[in-house]
Fold this protein.
Amino acid sequence: MVLSNPGYSDAKARASIQFGDLLVAEMQERPATGTATDPQKLNDNATGDFMYTGILNQYGEIRFRVPARLSQYRHFGHATSNGDGTWKIEYQDLGGAWHDWVVGIATRVASWTGFVPSGTITAIAIRMTATLLDSCATNYCGELEVKY
């Protein structure tokens, strides 16, 4: 959804629309940032490129163009992972506070999870944060996708 009205500021435009149901393509519009290594690879639509970290609580953060409703996620793993590390997905609400959305997400071994229903939230940003390091000493994520 593109907002174009010269009489409205971005903030007014955001306040005047109903929150959209996020599509995967929309979450890939802005490269991820964060404290993990190569966070922009979290949402670059290339499962062969990885965000990774060997340090707990490092993350990749995706900011949405407009507030969005989310209800499910999936992620892609790395061939060297053992599947025994964990991530969590946090979301930033409309007031700017961060909350856990999904916790205990196992690292993956070179495959996608299915889309996992996780309860509906409204977010302006999400973070994928390392909470337990994989026994290969690094948590990898080749891609994170969220949608309604």
